[in-house]
Amino acid sequence: MAGGVKKPVNIFRLQDLGEPKEVFNWRLWFAVFSFGLLGAARGVDEGLISGAFNSKHFQGTINYDSYSKVEQANIKANVSSMVQLGSVAGALIAFLICDRIGRIWATRQLCVLWVIGIAIFMGSNGNLSAIYAGRFIVGLGVGQTPVVGPVYIAEIAPASVRGLCTCIFTGFVYLGIVLAYFTNYGCQVNLGDTTAARWEVPTSLHVIFAVLIFILSLFQYESPRYLIKQDRHDRAVQVMAGLRNLPVDHDYVIQEINAIATSHREEMEAIAGSGWQGILKEAFTVPTNLYRVCLTICAQILSQWSGAGSITLYAPDLFKILGITGTNRTLLVTAVFGIVKLTAAVVCALFLVDFIGRKRSLLMGITFQAVSMIYVAGFLTAVPELGTEEGYVLSPSQSGLSKGAIAMIYISGFGWALGWNSMQYLLTAELFPLRIRAFCTSLAMAFHFANQYGNARAVPNMLLPSDLGGISPKGTFWSFAIVTILGGIWVFLMVPETAGRGLESMDQLFSLPWYKIGRYGNRNADMADIESPRIEGEKVITGSPVSHDAEKK
């Protein structure tokens, strides 16, 4: 498939896509699974930390009750968001590591950092400095995952199913969240709230996932696109053939390799001999690339400040504000929230992202999110005592509205998983040319974590009453609603559709003036595809999971 959006993808009839039947083989899905599992790194932490922090034993180890209410909000915000702060640095160094040692070894070293950080955190013995340091180091590892995972998957997946494959990464984010939520709930019910095991057992999920991902990486091989970038053309051909389960001289393999090599050669010729300066120059002075950089950075800012990430992080606290009482009940409601988001991610990956396209999926998710935020903000405006007056009890009439607000939080999670959270990784991974892909993805993910850190750090203070320096729960949700609506308008006007387009043909989307790209870029690219036999030769040009047998020969 050469260029723009082609016929919808039915994941149950992949043989109808016009690709050789051998392309969709177990090697592809095993590699996608192995690198998609990196998504669980973020999900586990986001799902665990609030529940673990709220355990009486953990709070006792840091003498939490001895602090004032504002100090408690600051400590909770610092502990919860320190991984995001470390992730900013992790995302920034990810491109250096990816381009220097490759996608595979980058995965292994981030797993080591991840385990070291968790070990420091679990062995802190109530020392806040050690807690902060451990979680920051965790962030150095976790921050690399949304660079390494989606980039590798996008580089190995056929264009016709690249959306599905990349969204598997997002699905594992929510699998991590669900496991974390239910582990918190199970430990609360079965181990009680006053033992170290209450928060140490859930935290050990970090170690389990890090070790599992490290072991799986031993069975994977380098991306053919990275191999070509390293001038290892013969190995790239061999690996691509193995991934596609086709002979090395098959036309399909030759077309893919030639398109990748041609694209890379053109990039290298354009900035010959300029080194890192060339990467920066290509990213920020070439108008089509600069637009892509701005596009991905704006996507990170608008998605994070829409508030959905903070709702995941502080779900138990927010459900308590909305009227859920009792620790066990709050954790159970939170766990169900995780299932809703996982379901949405699966629906998006299997039935929407390659079927109706990225842009429509994103707008659909933003619509769900906006409606939900407006309802919750309106409810908290009608009942301003929630979250500001200790021990406030809802009246019978308010209880019904409270249940509606809780349902809307579920719907907002569904919309977030359907829209922003799936698309922010997918668009970032697939928009950029090969030479600057790792750098630009790292830059976008650095903005992702910087804004996630800012939002996660700010929300506990934002939720405080105005007399304590906050804007109250109602003000917090109104701000989320406004940003979500602005994000929807921006997506409609500025974001082009990328479904079905090979990585090496993305330039066609950005040949128009910047203000026309979002609405007319795809139509213009389709017309260019018809006129350009070179791009037509690209067909399903996207790297693919590496073949073990081919690599070993």
Automatic annotation (TrEMBL):
A Pfam family matched in the record: Sugar_tr
GO-annotated cellular components: membrane
GO MF annotations, alphabetized: carbohydrate:proton symporter activity
Alphabetized Gene3D superfamilies for the sequence: MFS general substrate transporter like domains (1.20.1250.20)
Keywords in alphabetical order: Membrane, Transmembrane, Transmembrane helix, Transport
Membrane topology reported for the UniProt record: Multi-pass membrane protein
InterPro entries for the chain: MFS_dom (IPR020846), MFS_sugar_transport-like (IPR005828), MFS_Sugar_Transporters (IPR050360), MFS_trans_sf (IPR036259), Sugar/inositol_transpt (IPR003663), Sugar_transporter_CS (IPR005829)
Transmembrane feature ranges: 110-130, 136-154, 161-183, 203-221, 290-311, 331-353, 362-384, 404-422, 434-455, 475-495
Localization per Swiss-Prot or TrEMBL: Membrane
Protein family: Belongs to the major facilitator superfamily. Sugar transporter (TC 2.A.1.1) family.
Name of this chain's protein: General substrate transporter
